[in-house]
Amino acid sequence: MSTFDLDRFYQYLRLPDEAPFTIQLQARETLPSTNDEAQTLMTQGAAAGTAVIALQQSQGKGSQGKQWRSPPGGLYLSLGLRPNLPATAGHRLTLGSAWGIVNILNQQLALPSNSKLQIKWPNDLLLQGKKLGGILTESKLRSGLIHQAVIGIGLNWRNPVSPPGISLNSIRLKERNRGIESLEELAALVIQGLTLGYCHWCQNTPPFPPLITKYESHLSGMNHPVRISPEKMGTMRGINSNGELKVFVNPETLLFSPGTINLGYD
Q1: 192 inside domain
Q2: pLDDT of 243-261, one tens digit each?
Q3: Is 84 among the domain residues?
Q4: 141: Cβ–Cβ under 8 A, 6 or more apart, which residues?
Q5: What is the domain extent for residue 39?
């Protein structure tokens, strides 16, 4: 099995000037779950910006309790934060992370406009309508505040995938762009995106509305028909300040929480 070169990673890493933490990355060949490892480190007192990467996971986590297949060749990374964010606003961590990663990777890859990465609400990353990756945020509360959070990202790079998945390597070969040359470069870009998203909603006043607009600019299906039940269609209108999906079904706009509607893949 190949190894992860920490020195090379730090050479690639470029954090926003306003980043409130530095990155301390720990690399492992294999772990049950990078999220679990990062949570353990944070519980033991690790600072915000502590991150964990594994070349493969044996018990990787997906959303809604699903397992995330984690063979060698993919990116499996978790970033620990101490946001002191009200529990009711925890969705900002996931939405900001999704926007930040998509924003940074689109800049790096310079793909044609019809091939750019998009977000499948609320936490999946899409490439050409297929699943490129997903985000899982896990938090711990104290006195109604999120005092500790871990944002995990699983992303297909050179690992084998099955439908509805897609890998970054396949689009690189198809589009003949430079692509991303190493796992170290990809990890640095993803952490840059996670930090960008975190800074964006932390430092704007008011903090969240500007991020909603940016998130919606990458949202797959925006202003397009969406099926909300076997017999009912609506039109996606974006998200609200609670991170709920807005769907217009004449004459009203309905709101959906994550997990209550299945948007599917192309």
Answers
A1: yes
A2: 999 999 999 999 999 989 9
A3: yes
A4: 87, 147
A5: 6-217
Question: How are beta strands 50-57 and 75-81 bridged, if at all?
Answer: antiparallel
- Cβ 128 vs Cβ 120: under 8 Å: no
Q: What is the DSSP letter of 20?
A: S
Distance (Å, rounded) from C-alpha 200 to C-alpha 207? Answer: 8
Residue 19 lies in a domain: yes
Pairing of strands 50-57, 24-31: parallel
- How far are the Cα atoms of 30, 32, 118 from residue 125, in angstroms, in the given order? 24, 23, 6
User: Which tens digits make up the pLDDT trace of 28-75?
Assistant: 999 999 999 999 999 999 999 999 999 999 988 777 667 777 889 999
Of 211, 266, 9, the C-alpha closest to 97 is 211
Residue in 61, 58, 48, 75 with CA at minimum distance from that of residue 202:
48
For strands 124-127 and 24-31, give the pairing: unpaired
Q: Domain tally for the chain?
A: 1
Kindly report whether the global pTM for this prediction surpasses the value 0.90: yes
Q: Can you give the CATH number for the domain in which 113 is found?
A: 3.30.930.10
Residue at 234 is within a domain: no
Select from 87, 198, 97 the least CA-distant residue to 139. 87
Q: Closest Cα to residue 261, out of 121, 65, 96, 95? A: 121
